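To assess whether the prediction recovers the assembly geometry, we first specified each molecular entity separately, as shown.
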Amino acid sequence: DVKVTQSSRYLVKRTGEKVFLECVQDMDHENMFWYRQDPGLGLRLIYFSYDVKMKEKGDIPEGYSVSREKKERFSLILESASTNQTSMYLCASSFADRGHEQYFGPGTRLTVT
Amino acid sequence: AQSVSQHNHHVILSEAASLELGCNYSYGGTVNLFWYVQYPGQHLQLLLKYFSGDPLVKGIKGFEAEFIKSKFSFNLRKPSVQWSDTAEYFCAANTGFQKLVFGTGTRLLVSP
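The predicted structure of the complete assembly is given in tokenized form:
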């Protein structure tokens, strides 16, 4: 079974804090993704990575950065958390070939107060 | 920019009713299409996918979807829903490289 795990299910942080969300996949997938999920807006892509140390901006990268030092691990960083970053964050991974399905982690519900 | 539209945001059905959830995409080239489901408290999982070939695709739990290229549509169907189908359903399209574009989702509530 493909497994995508995320470091926390729930996280509460204060405005201005630096926040790290980590994601690990065990299927040797080339691609990894970070989304945020908000009611009525669906899933929006923040960043994705197609190889170690490679990254590309998604649709809403502002206020976020990412790091991929190892193939199985993809981190999302909120440099200075703000209340409008309160959301559910989903990590996903997939093989490189076009059209392969993405496998999702359980999500991290982040609340910024 | 490519987009995926799901016109039904909330759907309420009784058990045994038939289900059809609409999905339209805006892209003229080759497209791969997916339906994902998120049950309450669970992670997103793949329901079915279309790459090529037979436009009628069958997925898990009795779901199916039909790709109609002329209508840019990929509607999800199930002949008879169950209470356990209560979930949020997302349509998604892959139009290039590896990015998926998701619709805004449809919340389905099935009353027993």
